Amino acid sequence: MRRAKGIETGVEIPESIAQPRSRALHRLPARAVQTITAVGKHADGGGLYLIVTQSGSKNWIFRYSLDGRSREAGLGSARDVSLADARTKAAEHRALIARRIDPLSVRSTIAPIFAQVADDYIRDQAPRWRDPKAVRDWTNSLRVHALALLAMPVDAIEVSDVLALLRPLWQTKPEIASKVRGRIERVLDAAVVLGHRKDNPARWKGGLALVLPPPKRLVRGHHAALPYEQAPAFIAALRERSADSARLLEFLILTAARSGEARGARWSEISFADAVWTIPAERMKAEKEHRVPLVRRALEILAGQKEAQKGQRPTDLVFPNEYGREPSVNVFNALFRRQKIAGITTHGFRSTFRDWAGNETEHAREIIEGALAHAVGDATERAYRRSDALERRRKLMEAWAAYLEAGASDDTKASAKAPEQEISGQSESAV
Q1: What pLDDT does residue 393 have?
Q2: Phi/psi of residue 374, nearest 5 degrees
Q3: What letters, b where the CB count within 10 A reaches 16 and e where it falls short, cover 367-395?
Q4: CA separation, residue 426 to residues 389, 420, 429 (Å)
Q5: Does the global pTM surpass 0.85?
Q6: Residue 8 has what DSSP assignment?
Q7: pLDDT digits over 6-20, tens only?
Q8: In this model, does residue 389 exceed pLDDT 50?
């Protein structure tokens, strides 16, 4: 048995079918299109299949293998293509394969199936995606949530087919539904560019937006955040946990970093001498290098990690999981459950920091946004701003660490509110 790779239809195909033999031809009854209703793949032999989807649509595909690669070619909807015509088209494809010609490479009026266009799109776009898990996420989401479209020729997909997929998810899992819709739209956009169809039934503006409620009305626009007044108590409770994930989360909070940036932190990015963590552009959302000032407690956490890794398998990861790999995005969920805190997200701690800095300090807005690696001002203004204000941001992060350490006492608030322009009577240039 050989497994079909990529998205395709997710069904195992025996080697004898992947390379069709004449003795297996014409297995379906003459009235197969009318009588077969079971969802799945029904073989006629010689690589020809009748696909019945959950929505009840029926399509013909031709499954074959050439040069060690399994492929599927759509032969049209069973509504328009009879069993006899489908067999004729399959025979034409087998004749091409016998001459070592890929049927999909021959210019014809037959459109490829959605799965094939999706596989090609993902393969072509993968080099542009920073997240190494993007290919897997795209493939899995389309295989699971766009199953009914996979075997359909792209020129046969209609708005009703897309809506049949999305409506069950739109109210219950709006974020997933919105993401799946966007991915279907991009695959069908590729089909339009390739000349396989003239419009896009998954288009939002001027299309599905007229029949589905806007996603922003279904989900919250911001990540759920812990009120900053509760942050010191949260840190105190976090330090009672011995798990590496607790140290990772505290490091993330102290640096106001994004989850992926902290989980993927490398020793090669850390300078103990300068107390700086330099995150390379390829790991940053804005694709620009970002220097993070490290406060005393953050350095203590790093030193503890360095000590704990002595005698273990060498790794450049600062916070590897038990398998030596980067921790999962869900690594913090157990911590939230153990501390009996519901309704917050890891990313929300950046909002916690932003709220504290804006309400409890007098640091300039560009310094606060810089600590979050946010761009401030227009392109021209940013071009003239050569410095990343590292030392000014260090003062802000030290005040944040002091707040978390001591709690929201009057002394801590007063220290945090010290103006940047004048500290102990000195000007900024003298500090």
Answers
A1: 93
A2: -95, 140
A3: bbebbbbeeeeeeeeeeeeeeebeebbbb
A4: 18, 10, 8
A5: no
A6: T
A7: 565 443 333 332 344
A8: yes
Residue 270 contacts by C-beta under 8 Å, 6 or more apart in sequence? 276, 277, 294, 302, 318
Residue 15 contacts residue 1 (beta carbons within 8 Å): yes
Position 384 pLDDT exceeds 60: no
Q: How far apart are CA 109 and CA 156, in angstroms?
A: 12
For residues 267-277, one letter each, b for 16 or more C-beta atoms within 10 angstroms of the residue's C-beta and e for the rest, the string is: eebbeeeebeb
**241-281 residue pLDDT tens:** 888 899 999 999 999 999 999 999 999 999 999 999 999 98
- What distance in Å separates the CA atoms of residue 197 and residue 241, rounded to the nearest whole number? 57
Residue by residue, DSSP assigns 253-287 as HHHT--HHHHHT-BGGGEETTTTEEEE-GGGSTTS
Tell which residue, 333, 371, 352, has the closest CA to residue 233.
Answer: 352
DSSP string, 393-404: HHHHHHHHHHHH
pLDDT tens string 124-148 = 998 888 777 888 889 999 999 999 9
